[in-house]
Specification:
Blueprint lengths: L2 H14 L1 H39 L3 E8 L3 H6 L15 H10 L4 E3 L2 E10 L5 E9 L1 H6 L3 E5 L4 H5 L4 E5 H7 L10 E6 L4 E11 L2 H4 L13 E6 H8 L8 E6 L5 H15 L6 E7 H44 L1 H9 L4 H45 L15 H27 L3 H6 L2
Parallel strand pairs: 4-9, 6-8
Antiparallel strand pairs: 1-10, 1-11, 2-10, 3-4, 3-7, 5-8, 7-8
Helix pairs in contact: 1-13, 2-11, 2-13, 2-14, 11-13, 11-14, 13-14
């Protein structure tokens, strides 16, 4: 009997005993579907986190001042927390030197809230706004779609230039239809009375998912939208000095190697604080945090999957039990096959293949159910986030991704269960004495 003929016979036997075959497969189906559901959820969480971090910007280094205290002193409680003075803090001069040392490589994320107000055009049209000073990486992190012109640049920031980017809503409020806003200078009057003239260099499309939605009853003429101007220019408008702080977020050029960028940044700040006995700088990257989260998720997913896979053993025992019953039921059939010249290895192969086919079909059904479960859970999670956290929905790029590796392993493992638990019944069938088998009623 050939290999394909044996498979055909196994399928015919399964069809002849549909309910019993299904109940035999049930343990395999439950075990495989549980594993696939868990791995799909774990894989989807990792992919979603990766997408979210990319949306927020993983090309950002966090530079933080930490007290120069040894771990041993902390463990012993033998330390005194040093005072943080203004001389210890990061300064704008440091950033300027960083830009000059590594031109085009780094730029700090700086946000300077200025205030709200309105701008009145020469023909009396009014544009409402909230003014924020920013550097280019801040605007990039918002994922704003610049539909005309350009965004704020580092040259704008360092040069204290009177430039700005405005929303498409502000354009419709302030300008006549068909007017090109680029290059136009607008007098922005803040609510507290001060005013500043800024030249429009870019227009972005207002996104409610990014910047927040308006009241459904609010007219467009009543909508106040953000305008962005260079961060240092915002300090000039406020007539204040740039803030000094103990924490910086610094964006690096995505075309460069992150390890090299981190090393350069660390070298720069180490040099600045080499004489400081109380404080030192620590630099971390968002992608490093993502790697740590993924490592924890992998461990949890594997552990839970292993627990779920235990049910496969129960399923395998069920397969062995039904195959032993099948051997008894088909004793006379086995005797006829042996009387016609079938060898022991042929009988053994017949029952092993039948066991493998049962487990493989159960495994495939389990995989499909597991993927469906993962997709449904992902859809429910997505709907929950969209409904409960709509203002943050732009940060969550939910991706439902079944694990191909888990699927392949599950297929292989279901076949392995079939071979392992089908071997003993197959061996018992092959060992039957043909004469005794023919006498069996």
């Amino acid at each position: 009997m050939g290999f394909f003929e044996t498979i055909r016979l196994a399928l015919a036997t399964i069809r002849a005993n549909k309910l019993r075959s299904f109940l035999t497969m049930l343990g395999i189906i439950i075990g495989i579907s549980s594993v696939i559901t868990i791995t799909t959820i774990g894989n989807s969480i990792q992919k979603t986190l990766s997408n979210t971090f990319n949306t927020m910007g993983v090309n950002i280094f966090d530079v933080q001042l930490l007290p120069n205290i040894s771990t041993e002193d902390v463990m012993n409680g033998d330390y005194e927390y040093p005072d943080l003075t203004e001389d210890d803090l990061f300064t704008t001069d440091m950033l300027e030197e960083l830009y000059d040392t590594y031109p085009g490589h780094f730029e700090a994320l700086i946000t300077v809230p200025v205030g709200s107000g309105k701008a009145v055009s020469p023909d009396g049209r009014k544009g409402l706004f909230t003014m924020t000073g920013a550097t280019a990486p801040v605007i990039t992190s918002y994922k704003l779609d610049i539909i005309y012109g350009r965004t704020i640049t580092l040259d704008d920031v360092r040069g204290h230039k009177s430039t700005c980017i405005i929303s498409d809503i502000f354009v419709r409020q302030y300008f006549k239809e068909g007017t090109n806003p680029l290059g136009k200078t607008i007098n922005f009057v803040l609510d507290e009375g001060s005013a500043v003239d800024l030249t429009v260099v870019g227009v972005y499309e207002y996104s409610t998912s990014v910047l927040g939605s308006f009241s459904p009853t609010q007219k467009e003429s009543e909508k106040s939208t953000p305008i962005f101007l260079p961060a240092y220019t915002a300090y000039d408008v406020l007539n204040t000095e740039p803030e000094v702080q103990n924490y910086l977020s610094i964006s690096w050029n995505v075309d460069e190697d992150p390890e090299m960028m981190k090393a350069e940044l660390q070298d720069f700040f180490d040099d600045k604080y080499k004489e400081n006995q109380n404080w030192y700088t620590a630099i971390t990257n968002e992608s490093e945090l993502l790697d740590q989260i993924n490592a924890v998720l992998n461990v949890i997913t594997i552990a839970i999957s292993f627990i779920a896979a235990i049910s496969l053993i129960v399923g395998g025992v069920g397969v062995m039990n039904i195959m032993l019953v099948s051997v008894v039921e088909r004793t006379r059939e086995i005797g006829i096959e042996k009387a016609l010249g079938a060898k022991e290895r042929t009988i053994r192969r017949q029952f092993v293949i039948e066991s493998v086919v049962i487990c493989l079909i159960g495994g495939i059904i389990g995989i499909l159910i597991g993927i469906l479960n993962g997709v449904l859970i992902g859809k429910v999670a997505k709907a929950f986030i969209m409904n409960s956290y709509s203002s943050l929905s732009n940060l969550f790029e939910i991706s439902i991704t079944p694990s191909i590796k888990a699927i392949l392993i599950s297929v292989f493992f279901s076949m392995l269960v079939g071979v392992f638990f089908g071997s003993y019944p197959a061996k018992k069938a092959a060992a039957l004495d043909p004469i005794e088998a023919l006498r069996y009623e």
